[in-house]
Design goal:
Structural class: mainly beta
Order of helices and strands: EEEEEEEEEHHEEEEHEE
Shape: globular
Radius of gyration: 18 Å
Length: 252
């Protein structure tokens, strides 16, 4: 079995300190990348109450989780006298096995996302929280990426449709936020279940508000354009890759 590219998400430290990774103002239009931050210390599996806090300029978020089987992640957002709150049942994410691990702020401080995972190889996903009027709204935009990725991989390996059965559950991790654009690292879990498509990597640039796919990067382009900004090492599996634009198999 090949080693996972995403690894355990706690190894991915997302930038939420004031100024972000660039050292600029926290509301700079420059991208906030994952490289220079810290993990979100929040244990939602212990059954005991757990809490964490994050700040970005004059905005702050407090997170609480814990309780019995129906665990809930309670999110409180504060900025300039405004206080908003939302509760998210963890069962909404990957059958309740998902746990929050990192937070990444939008440059303007009016939105943020939480990356999380089930384990070291699969179940990685993120949820977005946005201030809309007088409400804090939760959304998940990775479903469209899951479907798109299956379609692209199927051009090289048609059996992927049968394996996923319409519910891909590929790994999704947001690694950058610039304006309304998210850079999303997408990976087929590195397990033999997926045969030759295992460990396949694509990069997606998405509109964080609409969920629209703006651009798709091949594994080679991800390595060239994003690798330097990551806080984990992408592995070099020996399996062939599937070009997302041409649908051709490239041997390594």
């Amino acid at each position: 079995m090949h080693t996972s590219t995403i690894k355990v998400l706690s190894a991915l430290a997302l930038s939420f300190a004031a100024g972000g990774a660039s050292g600029e103002s926290p509301f700079s239009p420059k991208p906030i990348w994952a490289k220079d931050g810290r993990p979100l210390a929040l244990d939602c599996r212990s059954g005991a109450p757990a809490a964490a806090q994050s700040t970005h300029g004059d905005a702050s978020v407090s997170l609480e989780c814990g309780g019995a089987a129906g665990q809930t992640l309670r999110v409180r957002y504060k900025r300039s006298g405004t206080e908003l709150e939302i509760a998210m049942p963890l069962a909404d994410m990957h059958r309740g096995d998902w746990r929050p691990q990192e937070i990444l702020w939008a440059p303007d401080g009016l939105a943020f996302l939480i990356n999380g995972s089930e384990n070291a190889y699969s179940g990685s996903d993120f949820v977005i929280f946005q201030v809309r009027g007088n409400a804090l709204v939760r959304s998940s935009i990775t479903g469209v990426v899951q479907t798109d990725m299956v379609g692209r991989l199927a051009k090289c390996w048609p059996y992927i449709r049968e394996i996923t059965g319409g519910d891909p559950q590929f790994n999704m991790s947001a690694i950058s936020w610039s304006g309304d654009t998210l850079a999303v690292f997408a990976e087929v879990p590195c397990t033999a279940t997926f045969e030759n498509s295992m460990c396949s990597v694509y990069g997606y640039e998405m509109n964080a508000r609409s969920g629209e796919i703006v651009n798709v990067l091949s594994e080679e382009e991800v390595r060239k354009n994003w690798r330097a900004h990551m806080s984990w090492s992408m592995t070099e599996p020996t399996l062939p890759t599937c070009d997302p634009k041409t649908g051709k198999v490239h041997e390594r």
